[in-house]
Amino acid sequence: MKDSQWWDVSWNPVTGCTKVSAGCEHCYAKSMHDRFFQSTPFEKVELHPERLSKIDSTKPKVVFVDSASDLFHEKVPFEFITECFSVMQRNPFHTFVVLTKRAKRMHEYFIWARESNPEWHLFYPLENVWLGVTAENQDMADERIPYLLNTPAKHRFVSVEPMLGTVNMEIAVRTDRGAYAYEVLTGKHWLFAPKPTIGNKLDLVICGGETGKGARVMQLDWVRRLRDQCAAAHTPFFFKQWGEWVPDMNDSVMVRSRATGIGRKLDGREWNDLPWRKKAEPVKASAEVQLSLEVK
Ligand code: SF4
C-alpha cells in the first residue's frame, strides 16, 4: 500500500457510473474502465451479486466499497444496497469505507431501510462502517454534508478530492425557512437561534489534488486553510497528495509535478491522521443481529 492510499483493498459489487458534478470530470474509474474494458460503456451500471460472498476474511483490512462506481447510484436498487451492508455487517473485522457523491440518495436509502425493517435499530449504524461524501468545492460541501450529518452513521468523513476551490467547514444549510450556519467539524449550529446547539459532526477530512491529463490546479492556500480548520477543531486530517500541480520550492506558485514528483508534503511534513488505521479491537457481531440483516 502506498502512503497516499487510505484503503487496503477495493470491493466492487457495483461497477459503472455516470457523472454528477465537477469532481467527476476526470473520473479515474472511467479512465481505467475505458482502457481495459472497452466492450461495455462505463455508463452502464451493473450489479455483481456474485461478489457479495467474495470478501477475503483472513486479515482485517480497510475496504473501499465501490471504488469503481457509486453504491448510491440511482440504478442500484435499495434492496441490493441492503445486501451490501449485510456483507459489511457480517464482516466486522474489516473496516468498510463508503464514499458517495449521491448524498441525497444515501439519505433516502437509510430512511427506506429503517422504515422497511422494524429491527433496523438493532444493527444500524454499523461500528465498522465509515460513511463519507465528496465535497470538491463549497457548493458540494453545502449540498452534500447536511445529508451526511442527517444519515445515521457511527463515523462520518468528507473527501475534498479533487479539491477545486476553497472549502469552508462552516457551511450554510438551506431550509424552507432560509439558511443557517453549521460548523461541520464541531457540530455547532445556529438553527435560527442566537445560541449554538451541538449536533452530528465530521470525524475525518481527506484532501487531495487531481492527477492525470487535464488535471485542474489545487492552490496551496486552499489546502492550508482546510488543514487549519481541522487543526482548530481537532478533526483528523489526511493529506493524500498534491496531484498534477505542486507548490514550487518557495511555495509561491503551483508548477507541474512532472519534474518534482507528485509529493504529499504540506509545510514540510506529511499529514496522515487516519482514525481507521488506529482501530485495534474488532467489533463482535451477535448472531441475533446477523439474522435480522438477512435480505429476503
Ligand atoms: S461518482 Fe465517482 S465513479 Fe461516478 S462518475 Fe463521478 S467520480 Fe466517477
Question: How would you sum up this structure, described in words?
Answer:
The protein has about 300 residues and is α/β, with parallel strands linked by helices. Mean pLDDT is about 90; it is low at about 280-295. It has one domain. Helix 3 packs parallel to helix 5 (about 140-150). The chain has eight helices and 15 strands. It starts with 8 loop residues before the first strand and ends with a helix. About 25% of the residues lie in helices and about 20% in strands. The site of iron/sulfur cluster has 10 residues, from helix 1.
Flag low-confidence runs.
Answer: 280-296
Can you count the beta strands? 15
Name the ligand types. iron/sulfur cluster
Task: Name the helix and strand elements from N-terminus to C-terminus, one letter apiece.
Answer: EEHEEHEHHEHEEEEEEHEEEHH
Number of domains: 1
Major beta-sheet overview: 7 strands, parallel
Overall, the morphology is globular
Helical region count? 8
Query: What is the alpha-carbon Rg in Å?
Result: 19 Å
Percent in strands: 15-25%
Distance between the termini: 37 Å
Please state how the strands of the largest beta sheet are arranged side by side: 1-4-5-6-7-12-13
Please specify the SSE layout and strand pairing:
Layout: E1 9-11, E2 14-15, H1 28-36, E3 46-47, E4 62-65, H2 78-90, E5 95-100, H3 103-116, H4 120-123, E6 129-134, H5 138-149, E7 155-160, E8 170-175, E9 178-183, E10 188-189, E11 197-198, E12 204-208, H6 220-233, E13 237-241, E14 245-247, E15 254-256, H7 275-278, H8 287-293
This protein binds iron/sulfur cluster (SF4).
